[in-house]
Amino acid sequence: MTSTAAPERGRRRHVGRERLPWPALVLAGVAIAFFALPFLGLLWRAPWGDVWSILTSESALTALRLSLWCSLWATLAALLLGVPLAWLLARVPFRGRGLVRALCTLSMVLPPVVAGVALFYALGRRGLVGQYLDDWFGITLPFSTAGVVVAQTFVAMPFLVLTVEAAFRQQDTRFEEAARTLGASRWYVFRRVTLPAIRPGLVAGAVLAWARALGEFGATITFAGNFPGRTQTMPLAIYLANEIEPDEALVLSLVLIAVSFGVLVALRDRYLGSGTDAPRP
Amino acid sequence: MSLDARVTCTLGTFTLAAYVTVKGGETVAVLGPNGAGKSTLFRCLAGLLPIETGRIELDGEPLDDPTAGIFVRPERRPVAVVFQDYMLFPNLTALENVAFGLRARGTGRAEARARAASWLARVGLADHSQHRPRALSGGQAQRVALARALATEPRLLLLDEPLAALDAGARGDVRRDLRRHLATFDGARLLVTHDPVDAYALADRVVIVEAGRVVQAGTLADVSARPRSRYVADLVGVNLLTGTGQDGTITTTAGGHIIPADPVQGPSFAMIQPHAVALYPAPPAGSPRNVWSATVTDIDRHADRVRVRLDGEVPLVAEITPAALDALALRPGDHVWASVKATEITTYPA
After folding, report:
1. DSSP state of B304
2. Smaller CB count within 10 Å for chain B: N or C?
3. A-chain residues near B47 (CB < 8 A)
């Protein structure tokens, strides 16, 4: 197997290179440059001498901590609510499923500011539901850290839902049937058969949602405001610093890029892009 | 231990209406062409598909009875399934696969593993307990699937095309193994297959299903001696003609006349072995009363036999020797006379 696989793979790669038309190669190169150049610009202008002092400054650390904390909670919330939603959309045929899917992924394509405004009228102190949260439970979401998590979850969850729904759809349901006939309850089947099978999609969806939550700006600043230590996440801190302290903005941007890029690289082929490793007959 | 299942189930435009019984220690094969409803029946028995009318009963206990409002969910049925393609969980080892049903029913980890290990040993795979399914051959995977099913101590074992996933070379050995392992299970065994060889090797009785209906049931010998449908006749390799008997003559639906040795009355089947059909370039003289004009539509050469397909008022397949074919110099489209002795025609009521 291995002795024959190696030359075959080599040949296929060769053939692939021959067939790629050069205009496509040039355009692809332009695309890569388009993505790489802004980062090169940051690296070029970065105040390398002051990096350490800026990084360890109280304001930077606070923003970074808050960002990681909120984005992780948002990812958890997206997992908790998004996986059952994805399952419903993938497995349960019902009237208006397309409409529900569109509704639940709307916040992904909406301008984040609009999402923030909408959240404000729904969950704000005088909002549709927010007034009761305030009256009955004393819960006020806007301008609080919890509000940041809500805003991030709102815009990030669709990424998880779409990815996990695709994983559910790709899964061979006969494995679940086999588990049922062996005496497994629905819940046991979900834990022991379904979840392991969709794990690659689950990880990919969670990472995408997390990355989106980490970078969330518009909905957060509209719904939760910009209070250092409470609602000022990295993107907000960068935006503010860019006006008054450009060097700090640069360094914070580099940190955000490094964290996100590191995670994406670590997960690259295993979970992203190449689809799921769903079991096949 | 016995299964008694009267099942009606509609899927789209397809309706299955079948009655199947299996006694304890007996293997029954449900045999039929693709799309006949075998899988639907199978899913109804496993509880993966509720029936519309009828009643499924195992040892007198109802598993599914819509009129009585009874439906036992698949995980509660004492029914175990060996699926086509085996459906072994790819993320679990062979041992964990076999232990799955025990764990799902609440058996402790250590005990489940011990019992799973003994089941793997019974099917001769003790050495493979730590292998994942992708590292197993088709035959080994099938034995793991069988061990996984039997470990739950079912009273009915269902097997869906248990040999279809294997290549032809491995099939013989695996079939022999499967037969041996099935014999050790004393519950009722029901096998779904489209391959008469599997049915012949593994089953005590066959139930022929076609277009959602049971067309024939009995031992394989009974069924092949008196096929009651074109499908069975083709499986067995005989000519089957249907018609109405009157005054010693069967008139087929296409208008042909068949004169058997024993007179029959009413709707009848006439079965003719292909080797009993003789071919002549001109109308033969002598005793045969059954002589039909026919056109050659197809010639199929085997090692020492040639099957000649004939179209006419009595469509037939004749089996002749290559020498006879050369002497007749037949080609598709040629006209011939086919003749069968009355004593070579087996008749029975339709």
Report:
1. S
2. C
3. 180-181
